[in-house]
Amino acid sequence: MSIEVKNVSKKFGTFQALHNVNLKINSGELIALLGPSGSGKTTLLRIIAGLESPDSGQIYFDDRDVTFYPVQARGVGFVFQHYALFRHMTVFDNISFGLRVRPRNKRPSPTEIKERVQELLQLVQLEGLAGRYPSQLSGGQRQRVSLARALAVQPQVLLLDEPFGALDTKVRRELRRWLRRLHDELQITTIFVTHDQEEALELANRIVIMNHGQIEQEGTPEEVYDHPANPFVFDFLGSVNIFRGRVSHGKATLGAIEIHAPEYADRKDSPAVAYVRPHEWVIDRNKTDDTSMEVVIRYAHPVGPTIRLEVERLDEEEILEVELTKERFHELDLSVSQRIFIKPRNIRVFPI
Amino acid sequence: MLFKQNRALPGFGLTLGITLLYLSLIVLIPLSGVLIQTASLSWEQFWETISDSRVVASYQLSFGASFVAAGINVIFGLLIAWVLVRYSFPGKRVIDGLIDLPFALPTAVAGIVLTTLYSPNGWIGSFFDSFGIKVAFTPLGIIIALTFIGLPFVVRTVQPVLEDLDKEMEEAASILGASRWQTFRFVILPPLYPALLTGFSLAFARALGEYGSIVFISGNMPMKTEITPLLIMTKLEQFDYAGATAIALVMLTISFLLLFLINGIQWFSQRHQRSARK
Amino acid sequence: MKSSVAPSEGIPLQKTIPIKQTKRFRWLLISLVFLFLSLFLLIPLVAIFVEAFSQGLDVYFEAITEPYAASAIQLTLLVAAIAVPLNLLFGVVASWCLAKFDFPGKNFIITLIDLPFAISPVISGLIFVLLFGTQGLLGDWLIAHNLRIVFAVPGIVLATVFVTFPFVARELIPLMQSQGIQEEEAATSLGANGWQVFFRITLPNIKWGLLYGVILCNARAMGEFGAVSVVSGHIRGETNTIPLHVETLYNEYNFTAAFAVASLLTLLALITLIVKGFVEWKTKQSENESQSEIG
């Protein structure tokens, strides 16, 4: 089922949680709503689910305007951040709840319910735990019960609010991969909320980046990572080095270095920021051209297969982050307090 | 050694000693007097006293009225707790404060005002009287008074549990298609059972022993509106100490059982909750 | 397997807007609560004062100042002045030992402290009659030494101490348990002695709970009827407390006077409730403060 969000705004008291949001989601997509806390991503998810109603604007499921449909009638599956499992019910009772509360003429028979729950338990790899209570499960298991419970009613949309937020890193990875497979298998339109850019980049077909109740950018993971639309997106996706300077006549001056910025040829001396990702530096022992900066290595931390350097600019006493592979590090025979030259391989300039 | 652990804080021995001494002097020794006095009765005498038809009628009335009153308190206590926790409306804080009035108001005062109001020519009693229903001086009046004195128990035990309830569970239920009623019945109510049961037992135990408010409203007719504590009082006034003590022993036993039951429920639900939170 | 789990017919969509209904339901519930509480709390509360003033201010003041009423008030104040401090001291001592230390049998002692709550007031009075009455266990000895306890002031004090016994301890034990012993241990490690630890560390932390316990204890001490009724003997001007005086007046069909005196006890109850509200507000405030310090 496709979903369309049209001009949706929502205020909580004086706080503008959503400001005129428009979003189209195609049937079968796996979408990440990514943003810092307070960006409105959870509010948007809850409005789509019907847990909140928008102050203005509409929600469409396919061609139906569902804005005023009560939550019971929307046919969505929702997975809560803290699972919201029914504590006094067993895993079986939790999963079958949505089937058991149906009106009698639409309720499956007890055997059908049993079969359905068995299938779902298999799907979430929790066979044999039907009789347990939520308190007897691990965090990852609870998360999967919560998913099975949402899937039991055969929703046409699956909504997940920070689904892996409360889990430790290893379980989180596993569940992420597993959710991806599940989505490929079931092809349900799925939206999940996260503040973890890595999670969004790894899992989603498309990422919607939100800030201050508005959508900053939407696109495939490659698009948003490689071509961030604005400084916020650049900053939010991965760590960056930030330079302040000015652009004028297609040239950006950032401290001692000067680079070409042909896209801003018509600008005359306006302030600008420039972003360079830590792994997008070219490192040399000798000065190669004018855009190189001389820096001194302060610290070198090995992080897995890469080395993260903290270097200090000699001209401006500024600390920069530089990342390079272990091989390159040894190849250059680098060591702490050595002077090196770095220049950006890729730099994005945004006038402000 | 029993208390071998190293204690950083002083005063353990002294305070424990004072506590046990005071507890013994004020509570335990006087209470044991009941047992000593009962021991002066032979088993046949004891049985005859506590199974006398007038005494049995008083048990029936005390238990029946207390049970009904505690039941009314469960229903309305849950309703009041729900309204106080979930809704906001003008006067809510005053209502919340007033709930404890039955704890704070002396029972004699409650007794005379309820009797005055619910007697056939009282403000409320005259209304019922026009339908031919007599409240004061009937078991109905006793139930009214017992409902009054037990009112705060259920409200105050259910309120904190209801406040702590995870609202996401209700949202999850409605997303899964449950109606408001189904959500209430299957998701909200079950976690409240221990609190409701505790509140019921507290209100029941309190009602069983109540004297001050009943003595005015019941009319005290033997076999009809005579509750057990009143019967003890009557026996005492006739200087039938042995008889009074025998009946008191029966009441005491029941009170102890209730006390253990209440503590048991609380211990059980605390353990249950702790493991659920883990 | 895929077929039954994958989205198919799902839940049928239906357009209903139950918002108005739930609003109506909400007001229905609120009205029910108001009706119930009016019948049981509000109307009785108002009726006490209406009855008390039904024959004018003069009659009211006459009723609460006539010699028997004055002596009942005096006796009640005396009884409370003895019972409340005793139980205050005991409550603090007992909760220090039960909340700050762990030892076998602790829970049993806490249950024993609750006992007077579980016992019918009539039985609470009865036990003192059995002990100190003329036919009681110590009766002969008391007569020989010309001492009167039951049907005299000492009996009333004893019965009151018994029924108000748990109030302070019950308030303090959970409060002190939740506060733990870290602050006290820190103070001890800095060289403070036991009294200093109690007065400078523990007492400031429990002062509001203590106040509430004392207020409740006092309300019950002044208002106790059943237990005192058994041991007092109802001698006007001598062993009648305020609640007993109310009973006497009521049984003599002197309703206005009975309600006038009862209105004093009602005022006491209302003050108790206000103090309770204040203490709860204070506690919440200090909780919020400590939370904002962390956050």
Task: Provide an overview of this structure.
- The complex is a heterotrimer of chains A (352), B (278) and C (295).
- Chain A is an alpha+beta fold and 352 residues long.
- Chain A has two domains: 3-236, P-loop containing nucleotide triphosphate hydrolases (Rossmann fold); 241-351, Beta Barrel (OB fold (Dihydrolipoamide Acetyltransferase, E2P)).
- In chain A, 26% of the residues lie in helices and 35% in strands.
- Chain A has helices at residues 41-49, 91-100, 110-123, 139-152, 169-186, 197-203, 221-226, 231-236, 326-331; strands at residues 3-12, 15-25, 30-34, 56-61, 64-65, 76-79, 157-161, 189-194, 206-211, 214-219, 241-248, 251-254, 257-260, 270-276, 281-284, 293-303, 306-313, 319-325, 339-344, 348-351.
- Chain A has a six-stranded mixed sheet with strand order 6-7-8-3-9-10, with helices on both faces. In chain A, strands 13-12-11-14-20 form a five-stranded antiparallel sheet.
- With 278 residues, chain B is mainly alpha-helical.
- Helices cover 77% and strands 0% of the residues of chain B.
- Chain B has helices at 12-39, 43-50, 53-86, 92-98, 101-104, 107-118, 125-129, 139-164, 167-175, 180-209, 214-217, 228-237, 241-277.
- Chain B is globular, with a radius of gyration of 23 Å.
- Chain C has 295 residues and is mostly helical.
- Helix content of chain C is 79%, strand content 0%.
- The two termini of chain C are 49 Å apart.
- Chains in contact: A-B, A-C, B-C.
- The interface between B and C is large, with 88 and 97 residues.
Brief description of this entry?
The complex is a heterotrimer of chains A (352), B (278) and C (295). Chain B is mainly α.
The number of E-state strands of chain C comes to 0
Look at the helices and sheets of chain C and give the structural class: mainly alpha
What fold name goes in the CATH topology slot of the largest domain in chain A?
Rossmann fold
CATH superfamily of the largest domain in chain A: P-loop containing nucleotide triphosphate hydrolases
Strand content of chain A: 35-45%
- The ordered string of helix (H) and strand (E) elements of chain C is HHHHHHHHHHHHHH
Per DSSP, what share of the residues of chain C sits in E-state strands of 2 or more residues? under 5%
